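Sample log: CPNE9 protein.
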Amino acid sequence: SVPGTKVELTVSCRNLLDMDTFSKSDPVVVLFVQVSGSSEWKEFGRTEVIDNTLNPDFVRKFVLDYYFEEKQNLRFDVPPGSHSAFFGAQDFLGQAFVALGEVIGSQRGRLERPLTGVPGKRCGTILLLAEELSNCRDIVTMQLCANKLDKKDFFGKSDPFLVFYRSNEDGTFTICHKTEVVKNTLNPVWQPFTIPVRALCNGDYDRTVKIDVYDWDRDGSHDFIGEFATSYRELSRAQSQFTVYEVLNPRKKCKKKKYVNSGTVTLLSFSVESEFTFVDYIRGGTQLNFTVAIDFTASNGLPSQPTSLHYASPYQLSAYALALKAVGEIIQDYDSDKLFPAYGFGAKVPPDGKISHQFPLNNNVENPSCAGIEGVLESYLQSLRTVQLYGPTNFAPVINQVAGTAAQVTDGSQYHVLLIITDGVISDMLQTKEAIVTASSLPMSIIIVGVGPAEFEAMEELDGDEVRLSSRGRYAERDIVQFVPFRDYVDDSGNEVLSMARLAKDVLAEIPEQLLSYMKTRDIKPRRADPE
């Protein structure tokens, strides 16, 4: 099937085990996906935590790529809530195994499975709903306020929030958004929020969107104030005028003759923008330019010794060559000229033995580009024979060099990816941070593959996934660095092909997002691809 078929899974649980002595459990569901061709499970994501309930309906969805020809095994774990990052077996509420194809193949895409895993106890069930997402990529931003809502709290006013539901093909409703709670008011103004159109109505503009108004209560038993219904089409009319909805409580309406409503909700603003994808830009002609920088410092060990990270036996490429090949072979598909500038750093270079932090591997200062990944590999092996491994390990010169090139064309037609392969012992951390912070406003990304046994704390810091990278008080505008340790991908079975495919996949995983974040902050739209 075509990659890009996206399936959205909605998760609910019923009759969960009650573990909390004082109140009901605070459940969360964690989804693990089995890595294809292995028995390894990898966390894919988790729902939000819902306090104090045994029958949660989670808002946060899992969106999976669905491949008809693959068996995509999923495992859902229900730990006892957010309080424990690593949950012990004693608190476990159960788990369920299911293949994505089973959910999609079930009647109406709904599957209910018993949760198991707590001996001698009934753990309740997990309900999964799979809906193929229409390819509607519009994103809506709207803001609502309410007036004169019913007072629900004995002391003080209500604490109102809204819950949005989209209707499914079969007439049932699926929760798709909750606003924040505005405390102690009957006239709340909620913050503007953004939601994909497909989440609101699955691309069907006339499908009912139901909105419930609740009064928040600490114990989780929120009071229902009232409801109203609309549709995407009706909401979108608010672009030209305010739309006011009456909030009705059916129970009150039946009981009280004089009942008018439980307040009103006004749609203050509504705007739509289109969300572009990585593929849109690539099809619109954005070129990825791939540059390689390889660590030739003495800490790698003498290339002629089998203990060296640069050592290549007749039977086995070095870790450097393997990493270069794995990443390069995928990225070269997006680079039309297949010419890759390739540099070494940290060596004494002939003829005069000067230390260089950006010498061309092909020894051609005028044109450091090599033809294809094979050309880069050849030049790399050639350089190992002619230069003397030395030091220090400076990243900044080669980062600044690529940044200089990236700065010349910033209209979105060119995007640069620098691959640095290193043993991770960095000497110019401060200069490198400065270089990356500067580069973060340019159309470029940096991939670092760490080879060898070192502790790579410095590389993790540059990666900036946990803490946004900063230098002298300036923060990186976007996260542009992705680091992976090579050793995580060398499996004992010696299945090099599979492990290198995993390496490439992980290293390149963040590039599309990083490219999109550059285009978005610069408001660059993809050029229309010529009709085929």
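Observation: The longest strand covers residues 264-274.
Observation: The chain has three domains: 5-133, 138-274, 286-522.
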